[in-house]
Design brief:
Blueprint: H1 3-24, H2 30-70
């Protein structure tokens, strides 16, 4: 993940945290709560996808390193 992707990831994570804080407050109207929830789910899915991709890269790199060590 390059620095631009890292910053984007950090921004998305911060955005998700802000959404959760807003949803935790008791003065948010129902319609706004639903919109925030939908937005939060979308951000969560994007973050989860990036984490899954990073995990797969680590697995791939580990496999390559193991093959090199064996040979």
């Amino acid at each position: 993940m390059n620095s631009s992707e890292q910053q984007n990831f950090e921004k998305q994570l911060q955005q998700l945290e802000e959404i959760v804080e807003k949803l935790d407050s008791s003065d948010v109207p129902l319609d706004e709560s639903l919109k925030l929830y939908e937005e939060g789910i979308a951000v969560y899915r994007a973050l989860n996808k990036r984490i899954t991709e990073a995990e797969q890269k680590i697995i791939d790199i580990s496999k390559i390193n193991n093959e090199i060590d064996i040979n």
